[in-house]
Specification:
Blueprint: H1 15-23, E1 27-30, E2 34-40, E3 47-51, H2 60-75, E4 83-89, H3 98-115
Parallel strand pairs: 3-4
Antiparallel strand pairs: 1-2, 2-4
Helix pairs in contact: 2-3
């Protein structure tokens, strides 16, 4: 069984970490409820940053629930390469139940793994 913890080394911690992703977006994955932005980091492991505004998720309980689900699904995907990843929440997230969000996020992580720089399918024009 793999280690599914979420240590500080797996997080974007400083504003400069987030700016690095926003300034050099290499992979952009839009979705009805999320927007995932990613850029290579050269660290040999993926790092995750979360942005969920009060405008889209009015209550702290809702924001915390969604962030918890994003972190949980992120920990279970070891195939994301060396990326700094920022997940932004969009509107209507609060209306989604946990199972629907889990399915959506699993699909988004798989799509990110395929599109990430350095993956064998990223350079394949048919994929």
């Amino acid at each position: 069984m793999g280690d599914h913890s979420f240590p500080k080394t797996s997080r974007l911690l400083r504003p400069a970490d987030y700016s690095g992703v926003f300034d050099d977006v290499q992979v952009r994955i839009p979705h009805r409820h999320f927007l995932i932005l990613a850029s290579p980091n050269g660290l040999g492991r993926p790092r995750l940053g979360l942005i969920f505004s009060k405008r889209n998720l009015k209550h702290a309980v809702q924001r915390n629930r969604v962030k918890r689900l994003v972190r949980e699904t992120f920990r279970h995907h070891n195939d994301l390469g060396s990326l700094d990843i920022v997940v932004l929440g969009r509107q209507n997230l609060a209306s989604q139940d946990n199972q629907a969000l889990h399915r959506s996020l699993d699909g988004l992580w798989q799509k990110l793994a395929r599109k990430s720089p350095g993956s064998e399918t990223a350079s394949d024009p048919s994929g």
